[in-house]
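TOKENISED FOLD:
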Amino acid sequence: MATQPSNLKVLSEGSELPAKTDLLGMDYASLVDFFAKIGEKPFRAAQVMKWIHQFGVSDFNEMTNLSKALRQKLIDTAVIRTPKIVSEQRSSDGTIKWLLEVDHHNCVEAVFIPEKSRGTLCISSQVGCALECSFCSTGQQGFNRNLENWEIVAQMWVANKALGCKPKEDRVISNVVFMGMGEPLLNVTHTFPAARILMDDHGYGLSKRRVTISTAGVVPAIDKIKAALDVSLAISLHAPNNALRDELVPINQKYPLEVLMPALHRYVEGGHSKKHVTVEYVMLDQVNDRVEHANQLVALLGDLACKVNLIPFNPFPNAPYQRSSNNAVHRFQDVLMASGINCTVRKTRGDDIDAACGQLAGKVKDRTKRTLQTINLDQLNG
């Protein structure tokens, strides 16, 4: 496993930047531009992209269909950075969690969830999270920075290597969800190019319906997804009214339900393919799990093309909530199903290694003050 390259510029704070162009996070169009700048034909972009993402190669000397001269040119001008695996944990249910070092101060987590019909990789988009959702362990760790393109894509690269698979030959990872650490839509500058690499035929070749971006409700970026990516969308809703959602998902104070819901309708309307939104709803005992909340949710969703995913709360140290009882979850589900809303209950996976939904923590050097009032959410994106 390659780690940080030796050709680095050391900055005043002790951070490091590569002296050469990093290719891991470059989508096809960016690679075409790179090869043009070094005097090479556009088809080289497809060749190198396949070597990196489909064969997991980070050493230019192993790219055997490139000439020796071109390989040397790449050695002189480019690098393929991959993060160090700090730890790997395996759950009794087959779930695997990797802790990945992205710089000297920070680590993020990625989780692989194997199932009979598919294998899902949950990846992170930020080091920590600034949104401070009260039921989420990640939100309690603070926020350091956005992940760059290569740091997002590297989670897929590392997972494929660790699982011993080649994406085009044996697709062990069939689905990718941006549901790990961070809010993806506060980092569209890097999340969108990373998603394009996941879907590119020269990259990992995932279909649009198998790449899902989850958001707590960053409305301006929701409006960009359809035009820019056309991927699947999940909304972390968790409450059927503004008062409760302000408490559980504080970004609701900036984009309340009367602003969020029309954005979700805009996402599903028009276009050539039939779309729906996945509504994520964590079940908190005596907080948002009563029948009255279920009825409010039915009214809120209305005729929105959606499916609802009820998520049992996964505890973390000093969490202020308890998991809803099975009876409460099924009562809630029955109300939604009776109204014609497709509603499933997520099976908890990886909770014995703290890899379940809401439990990812990583290692974050917090650089934020811990109230939304002091955080300019618009400035976090970029």
User: Anything to note?
Assistant: The first strand starts at residue 8 and ends at 10. The mean pLDDT is 86.
